[in-house]
Amino acid sequence: MAKLSKYPDKQIDTITQELIAVFEKHKSPVDLSLVVLGNMVTNLLVSSVGVNQREILAKTFSDALLNSIKNSN
């Protein structure tokens, strides 16, 4: 999703592939996968981000997601 990251591409790709494998293992349809990913994002924001920054980070994340699907053509 992100064009620039402080994390190595290999690390991002490895984690992404592991998450995809979990969804495939459970034969998770797209809508269930999106619910699970949304719950994970919410959990990360609530458990790891200060109250004052949550909405800002959620907005930044959602904007990046929208941009990534607009530019995927």
TrEMBL record:
Family annotation (SUPFAM superfamilies): YejL-like
Residues annotated as transmembrane: none
Lineage, uppermost ranks: Bacteria, Pseudomonadati, Pseudomonadota, Gammaproteobacteria, Pasteurellales
Family statement drawn from the similarity comment of this UniProt entry: Belongs to the UPF0352 family.
Entries under Pfam families matching the protein: DUF1414
NCBIfam families: PRK13689.1
Name recorded for this polypeptide: UPF0352 protein ACFQ02_04650
HAMAP family referenced in this protein's UniProt entry, alphabetically: UPF0352
